[in-house]
Amino acid sequence: MTPSTTPPTPPTPPLTPFGDTVAGGDTAAVRNVTVRYRGTVALNSVSLTLSEGVTGLLGPNGAGKTTLLRTLATALVPDSGDVAVLGRNPGSPGRRQEIRRNLGYLPQSPGFHRHFTAFEFVDYLAILKEITDRRRRHDEVRRVLAAVGLRDERGKRLKALSGGMRQRVALAAALVGDPRVLILDEPTVGLDPEQRLRFRELIADLGVGRTVLLSTHQTEDVAALCRRVVVLDRGEVRYDATPERLSGVAEGRVWFSTERDPRAAAGWRTGRGTYRNIGSPPEGARLAEPSLEDGYLLLLGSVPEQREAA
Amino acid sequence: MTDSTAHPPHPGAGTLRDYARGRLPSPVRETVEPHLDGCSHCRVQLAALVDHAPLDAVWRRLDLAIDAPVPGWLERQLLALRIPDHVARLMAATPALRASWLCGTVLTLVLAVLTARLAEPADTPVVYLTVAPLLPLTGVATSFGRRWDPAHEMGLVAAVCSFRLVLLRAAVVLGSCVLLTAVTSLALPRLGPVAFAWLLPSVVVTALSVLLLTRLAAPIAAVVAGSGWLAGVALTEHSEALFSAGGQSALAGLLAATVGALLLRRADFDTEKGIHP
Q1: Can you give chain B as a three-state secondary structure string?
Q2: CA distance B247 to B252
Q3: CA gap B134, B231 in Å, rounded
Q4: Domain parsing of chain B, residue ranges
Q5: Strands, E, within chain A: which ranges?
Q6: By its UniProt entry, which Gene3D superfamilies does this protein fall under (chain B) (predicted)?
Q7: Which of A32, A136, B214, B227 is the most buried (most CB within 10 A)?
C-alpha cells in the first residue's frame, strides 16, 4: 500500500474546555459527539473543528452527514459530547439564541409555503430571525434575494418557480442577517449543470470571510470549491484534509485497459471504449490522472485492506 | 437672431441651487427651465445640487409598494387590531388556517348546536360543551412538525425563539375556535353563562397539547390531550360537574399548572428533541 492511501488521522480539536463559551478563532466545533436514533448510532464520537472558508463534507447515504449538520445548526442536541459554534455552547438557551442570530442553515429538503412569493418566504424567515423593523427587514430580504440572483423573481409564487430557483430562495433565506456560519446540506441535489454552476459560484463567494460547511455527494463541487474535505462514514470521520490529498489517495491506482480488469475494485467502460479501473494496477498499466472521486471511492472501498495494513 | 439667443448664458450656481430647492421665483424659473431642457451641462450641475434624500424616500416607498408582501384577509384583520406587522405575518402563516379546517370546525359546531337544541337537556348541553373544547386540538395537530409545516426545519433553526412561535400559532388556533364557538353559542340563548362553559376547557386542552409537543408528534399530542378531556367528562359522576363552578375552578388550577410547566420547558421547543418532528 502506498503511503497516500492511508487517511490522515482526524485532528483533535484544540478547543478546551467546552464550557459556556469557548475562546479562540474556530467558528464551529464538535468534540466526541455521539447521536443515536432509536438505538442506531448516527454519529459515533465525532470530533471536528471548522474555520473560515468552505469545507466539504462527503460520505455515503446514512453516513451521518445530515445529523452532523443538524447538530452544528443547533437543531439537534447530541446524546453525548460537546458542541461549540462561534465560541458558544448551544446547550444554553441564551447562547443558542446568540448562535442562531449568526447562523444560516439550508436543510437537505427545504420545505416551502408554496403559496408564498419568494419575497414573502424570505420575509417570513427574517421575522423568525427577529428582524422586526419592517423597512430594515425588507431591505435585507431584497439584499439576499439579489445576492442569489432572484431580484426579478421576488414577486413570483414559489410554486411557479423551478426547483433550482426554489433552492436559491432557500439559500437566500439562510443568508438573512449575513450569518458568519453557513451550513448547507446538499444544496445542489436535483439541479441541472447550469444551476449547479450558478450555485457553485454563489457558495465560492459566500466562503470568503465566513465558515461554510457544505454537505454533498458531488465530488466535483468539493474539488472546485473546498479548501478542506471531511469524509464521514458510518458515523465516524474517515478523512480530514485537503481535496488534493484525497485525490492523491488514488495516485497510481487508476488505470486504463482495453478490457474489463478483474483485479479492479471498480471499473467502467468509458465513451472511448476503454475501461477506467480503480484498485491495484497490474505491472505496466497505463495509469490515469486520479480525480477526487477516485480517491473518495478508494477510501470508502478499501477499509479491510487498510485495517489489515494497520 | 442674436448669438446670445442661440446660446443663452448658463444660470449661475446660486440660481441653480434655488431652483433645486424649489425656491426660485416664478418669472426666473420659467426662463431657467427651458434652458435646462436644452443644456446637458446645466442638468449635470443641477443633479449635483439636488437633495437626494427625499427622492430616495419616494423610491423606497414605491419599491415597497411594488414588491413587499400584500397582507391577506386574515393578516389585514390582525393589523386592524393593532397587532405589529411581523407578529401578524407569523400568525397568518399558521399551517392549520386553511379553508378546509375552518369549514370543518364550523360544520362540527353547527351539528353540536343542533344536537344541543334538539336532543339535549335544556340546562346543560353536555355534547356541545364536550365537543367545543376538542376543536382547537385539530388545529394544534395540523400546525406543528415536519408533516404539516413545510418550512419546519428551516423555521426551527431560523427562529431565535421557537417557543414564541409555538405560542403564537396555538393562540391563533385557539382564538379562531373561540371566536367561532362564541358565535354559535349565541344560538343557545336560553342557557345563559353555561353556554360559555366550553371556554376554559378549550384553553386547558390546548395548553396541554402544546405541552405534550415536547414529547409527542403534534397529532398524537392532540389525541392524548383530547382523550384526557373525554375521559374527564366520562369519569365525572354527573357529567355536568365539569361545567359547574367547582369543575371550572379545578380546570383553572390545571391550566395554571400547565402554563407553569410550559414556562419551565420553553427551551425544549428550540430543538428537534424538544419539539417532535
Answers
A1: CCHHHHCCCCCCHHHHHHHHCCCCCHHHHHHHHHHHHHCHHHHHHHHHHCCHHHHHHHHHHHHHHHHCCCCCHHHHHHHHCCCCHHHHHHHHCCCCCCHHHHHHHHHHHHHHHHHHHHHCCCCCCHHHHHHHHHHHHHHHHCCCCCCCCCCHHHHHHHCCCHHHHHHHHHHHHHHHHHHHHHHHHCCCHHHHHHHHCCHHHHHHHHHHHHHHCCCCCHHHHHHHHHHHHHHHHHHCCCHHHHHCHHHHHHHHHHHHHHHHHHHHCHHHHHCCCCCCC
A2: 9
A3: 12
A4: 13-67, 73-268
A5: 28-37, 40-50, 53-58, 80-85, 103-106, 181-185, 211-215, 228-233, 236-241, 254-257, 264-269, 275-279, 286-287
A6: Anti-sigma factor, zinc-finger domain
A7: B214
Among A92, A13, A89, A4, residue whose Cα is nearest residue A51: A13
Q: Which of B154, B161, B165 sits opposite A105 (nearest CB)?
A: B154
Beta carbons within 8 Å of B150's beta carbon, 6+ residues apart:
A111, A112, A113, A114, B95
Contacts with A, B 212-241, CB within 8 Å? none
Q: In what order do the strands lie in the sheet with A211-215?
A: A103-106, A181-185, A211-215, A53-58, A228-233, A236-241
Give B19's contacts (C-beta < 8 A, 6+ positions apart): B11, B29, B32, B36, B46
B86–A93: do the CB atoms touch at under 8 Å? Answer: no
Rounded to a whole number of angstroms, the distance from the CA of A187 to the nearest CA of chain B is 13
Phi first, then psi: what are they for B28, rounded to 5°? -70, -40
Partner-chain contact B272 A70, CB within 8 Å: yes
Higher per-residue pLDDT: A302 or B215: B215
Name the residue among A27, A46, A26, A23 with its Cα closest to residue A36.
A46
CB contacts of B93 in chain A (<8 Å) are: 113, 124
ipTM exceeding 0.85, yes/no: no
Query: B76 CA to chain A: closest CA distance, Å?
Result: 15
B82 in A contact zone (CB under 8 Å): no
Determine the Cα–Cα distance for residues B172 and B73; give it in Å rounded to an integer. Answer: 14
Going residue by residue through chain A, which has 310 residues, state the pLDDT in tens, using 9 for 90 and above.
333 344 444 444 444 334 444 444 568 999 999 999 888 899 999 999 998 899 999 999 889 999 999 999 999 999 999 999 998 999 888 889 899 999 999 998 888 877 889 999 999 999 999 998 888 898 899 999 998 888 888 888 999 998 888 989 999 999 999 999 999 999 888 778 888 888 888 899 998 889 999 999 888 889 888 989 999 999 999 999 999 988 888 888 888 888 887 877 778 888 888 888 888 888 888 888 888 888 888 888 753 343 333 3
B164 interface with A at CB cutoff 8 Å:
no
Q: Give the one of A103, A119, A123 whose C-beta lies nearest to B157's C-beta.
A: A103
Tallying the residues shown for chain A, one arrives at 310
Does residue B229 carry a pLDDT above 70? Answer: yes
Q: Which of B147, B160, B167, B273 to substitute to test the interface with A, most A CBs within 10 Å? A: B160
Put simply, the answer to whether A119 touches B68 (Cβ < 8 Å) is: yes
